[in-house]
Every structure is written in structure tokens, then in C-alpha cells.
Write a structure and sequence with these properties.
227 residues, mainly alpha, three-stranded antiparallel β-sheet, 13 helices, elongated
Length: 227
């Protein structure tokens, strides 16, 4: 029999044994009450960092345009944190915020790194620019600056008219093995022929930048939230 008939007081047959009429009515009315309740709005998920491809800003163009404002800069030159700071400032002005600025900075040489100091001197700069035409040169030049013997060798390479040829020899497997033998007692002289994993040029920085995530407007850095 329907609920309307029950509420209207109409006669009905006694329910079969075992049927709990009060429980059934309570469940029925309770179901109506639950059905009438409005649904709660789903919690909004926090915004997630986006990739470089989703940025509306041409990252490479910003990097190259900012570096070109330095009259002494040439494409392929060694860059340090001093050159990166105005680039990051420009990106922030455009609303582009890398999610891990600290990691980006840590990958770039500081103004006090030996190779950066050498690059500031005109004579050394000419040598480094020419040497850098060889793939992996910046890694080798940076590693030379990590040891006393390497720094002395750098000075000799720069001062010698045949320094470029000597550097090319040093870049060969045999030359690398000889250098590691020379500095075998210094842990920083190991793995001379391997990449350092550091950012040395604008192209390196652009590639690293394009692989990072970026914070959306109003979004805070997840690392800052944990501090």
C-alpha cells in the first residue's frame, strides 16, 4: 500500500509477520529528508604550477633581450648569477615566476667562481671565448678552476700562444687522464672529463628554464608553505 494511503487513514491489511512498519516509515521519511538536503560544493583544488609551454611569455626572447643590453655580451659567453638576476627580475615583471628559483640560482656560477673572475679580464676572456667553441669546454675550464694545479694550468694556457692547441689536447681522453693523474691527491680533480651539471651560457639557462614549472597568479610556492 502507498504512503499516501497510510497517511490518509485508509484501511489496509495487516503487514506480514516480521515486517517492521515503524522502521520502514522512518527510513522512508529519512530518505526524503536526505534527498531534500542541498549538495555541498566540492572543495576547490589548489592551483598547480604549469609548464613552460603554457606560459604566454617567450622565455628565450626575454633571456636574449635582457643579455643583449650588456654591450660586452656576445652569444655563447659565460654567464653568472650577476647576469641572471636582471633576467629573473624581468620575468617577474611579466608575471612569470619559476617555482624553484633557488635551484636555478644554485646551478649558475657566482661572481666569485674562478672561471667567472678570469672571464672579466680582457685577455682571459678572449681565450675562453675561443676555447668555448669546443663542446664541453666550459665544464673542463670550470673543473680546472677547482684545484690549485688546474688554476696554474689555466694561467699557462691563457699566457701561451699555443694555449688553444694545448687545451684541445687536454680535452682528449689521454689529456684528461694525464690531468687526473696530476691532481690524483685532490678529490676535486676527479671526473675531469665529465659535465659539471652547471649552467654556463644563455642557451643552457633557457634549456633549464624551459624544463621548470611556473607558479600561477596568486599561487604560493609549495616550499614556502612548508617553512
Amino acid at each position: 500500500m502507498s504512503l499516501q494511503s497510510i497517511l490518509a487513514g485508509r484501511a489496509f491489511r495487516a503487514p506480514r509477520r516480521g515486517f517492521n512498519f515503524k522502521l520502514a516509515l522512518a527510513l522512508l521519511l529519512g530518505g526524503c529528508m536526505f534527498a531534500a538536503r542541498p549538495r555541498l560544493a566540492a572543495a576547490k583544488e589548489p592551483a598547480k604550477p604549469v609548464g613552460a609551454a603554457e606560459q604566454k611569455v617567450d622565455l628565450a626572447a626575454v633571456v636574449k633581450r635582457t643579455l643583449s643590453q650588456n654591450v660586452d655580451y656576445r652569444p655563447g659567453d659565460l654567464i653568472s648569477q650577476n647576469e641572471i638576476e636582471p633576467i629573473v627580475d624581468e620575468l617577474l615583471n611579466l608575471g612569470v615566476r619559476p617555482a624553484d628559483n633557488e635551484e636555478l640560482y644554485d646551478a649558475i656560477l657566482t661572481a666569485n667562481d674562478h672561471l667567472v673572475v678570469l672571464f672579466q679580464a680582457p685577455g682571459s676572456r678572449a681565450f675562453i671565448r675561443e676555447a668555448a667553441k669546443t663542446p664541453g669546454a666550459y665544464d673542463a675550464l670550470e673543473r680546472l678552476g677547482w684545484t690549485a694545479a688546474g688554476r696554474e694550468m689555466l694561467d699557462q694556457l691563457i699566457a701561451n700562444p699555443d694555449g688553444q692547441k694545448m687545451f684541445q689536447t687536454l680535452m682528449t681522453p689521454a689529456g684528461s687522464a694525464k690531468f687526473q693523474e696530476l691532481v690524483k691527491n685532490d678529490p676535486r680533480g676527479r671526473n675531469f672529463g665529465l659535465p659539471t651539471g652547471r649552467v654556463h651560457t644563455a642557451d643552457d639557462f633557457i634549456q633549464r628554464l624551459q624544463s621548470k614549472a611556473f607558479l600561477q597568479p596568486g599561487q604560493t610556492n609549495p616550499r614556502d608553505a612548508k617553512k
